[in-house]
């Protein structure tokens, strides 16, 4: 049976981007929207942290083989996974309403931290790839100073892969023979140029960060 990998690379992508963007306080047009976005992001991160901690306690190098779990551990795993899924579903439903009523929460509308929070929520809306595509299109149309370009890069890769295409920025990785490798990548020779344009470090540096964070990936 394939092992369950700690913090599916989607989790890392969110954490890396959040760490890279340290927004400064600024006046916002919709402070209540900003507060709710931040509240929901806190719930998102708490649910994921509980899952990550569970995996760390019961796995080696962040890897748990499902077949080795006791019945009690299986129940625990199902509980932390279900909690994360429930939070994602609730956040996606709520964010869809926000976008339907007022478009994408921009830096001006929700503040840089609020807009960053909105991005994290849609990044975790994998159960609704069409909604992710819609949000990506809305973000792309905004002026560059209204949306984080690194966030845009992460969501671009997420959406392209979900659509069966190759990613552009190499933000999404997978396990290959015990090593973390980027998932199918378009024009790999120029990926670092594209990454630099949106404020991301070179791909090799990102790969090292992944290995430092999670160690070698499990062999499939």
Explain this structure to me?
There is one protein chain. By secondary structure, the chain is mainly alpha-helical. It has one domain (7-21, 28-56, 72-101, 108-214). The chain has eight helices and four strands. α5 runs antiparallel to α6. It is globular. Residues 1-22 have low confidence and may be disordered.
- Tell me the strand order in the biggest sheet: 1-2
| Overall geometric form | globular
Radius of gyration: 18 Å
Order of helices and strands: EHHEHHHHEEHH
- DSSP, total strands: 4
The biggest sheet, with number of strands, parallel, antiparallel or mixed sense and barrel status, is:
2 strands, antiparallel
Question: What is the terminal separation in angstroms?
Answer: 9 Å
Total individual domains: 1
Strand share of the residues? 5-15%
Poorly predicted runs are 1-22
How would you summarize the topology of this molecule?
Elements: E1 4-5, H1 9-20, H2 31-58, E2 63-64, H3 71-102, H4 107-123, H5 129-141, H6 149-162, E3 173-176, E4 179-182, H7 191-197, H8 203-214
Note the main attributes of this structure.
220 residues, mainly alpha, two-stranded antiparallel ribbon, globular, disordered N terminus
At a glance:
By secondary structure, the chain is mostly helical. Helix content is 61%, strand content 5%.
